[in-house]
Design goal:
CATH architecture: 3-Layer(aba) Sandwich
Number of domains: 1
Helix content: 10-25%
Low-confidence stretches: none
CATH superfamily: Nucleoside phosphorylase domain
Order of helices and strands: EEEEHEEEHEEHEHEHH
CATH topology: Rossmann fold
Shape: globular
Radius of gyration: 17 Å
Number of strands: 11
Distance between the termini: 17 Å
Mean pLDDT: 86
Structural class: alpha/beta
Strand content: 15-25%
Number of helices: 6
Largest sheet: 11 strands, mixed
Length: 245
């Protein structure tokens, strides 16, 4: 089975060029994942794909069963996970339509099942998380992004908010003071759970709009329109990038 898994986020429920050979719904001790795992071939590379928000984008960020998703990928023999996410840009260089490969995370979420080591049936264990992303895999994605000639930011800090609403301007200002360069809603506990299961994990974060307060906008509806326009560009960018991973 495949050693590379791709988790598709908003705007990426399927991948052009992915020749699906079979689908499998994996049951886990933590319930069902967001949808069936799709096994196939992508430009000669065997992969397994999972749509994070389910078919038709029906699962909001705070309701995703992250435990089941990561466990299912491990059961499918995945060893490396490329997690695609649509995010907002905070830092000046994280402009819309750029790709950010973050190297750090700040977690602002709450109430999510965020660990496998919560007592029975798993033992309690404390895993290191100083560097939340696998650096070897991160460099592979960076190399692929360069080859695809997409606008690239090679490091950054992913600020993870609870969702499903967007952040307020004040919340984004706090994130910026904390050192966040992008904002999104799904980066945690996904990365932490992957670390607990020993999976190499990296985020491929596609900036679909500026975060709140980071660019002049007439209204919240303008922000929503910007996000929709940016999401429409996600799929084509990801196709180019994943060819070289």
């Amino acid at each position: 089975m495949s050693s590379i898994a791709i988790i598709g986020g908003t705007g990426l429920t399927q991948i052009e060029g992915l020749n699906i050979t079979r689908r499998e719904m994996v049951r886990t001790p933590y319930g069902a994942p967001s949808g069936p795992l799709m096994f196939g071939d992508l430009h000669g590379q065997e992969v397994v794909f999972l749509a994070r928000h389910g078919h038709g984008h029906t699962i909001p960020p705070h309701r995703i069963n992250y435990q089941a998703n990561i466990w299912a990928l491990r059961e499918a023999k995945a060893e490396q996970v490329v997690a695609v996410a649509s995010v907002g840009g905070i830092a000046d260089d994280c402009t819309p339509r750029s790709v950010v490969i973050p190297n750090q995370i700040i977690d602002y979420t709450y109430g999510r099942e965020h660990t496998y080591f919560d007592g029975a049936p798993e033992r309690v264990e404390h895993v290191g998380f100083s560097d939340p992303y696998d650096e070897t895999l991160r460099q592979r994605v960076i190399t692929a992004a360069r080859a695809a000639a997409v606008p690239l930011v090679e490091s950054g800090c992913y600020g993870v908010s609870q969702g499903p609403r967007y952040e307020t301007s004040a919340e984004v200002a706090r994130m910026q003071r904390d050192g966040c360069t992008i904002s999104g809603m799904t980066g945690m506990p996904e990365a932490g759970l992957a670390r607990e299961l020993g999976l190499a994990y990296v985020s491929c974060s596609l900036v679909v709009s500026w975060s709140a307060g980071r660019a002049p906008m007439a209204s919240d509806s303008d922000l929503a329109d910007d996000v929709k326009a940016g999401i429409a560009n996600v799929s084509s960018v990801v196709q180019k990038l994943l060819i070289g991973v």
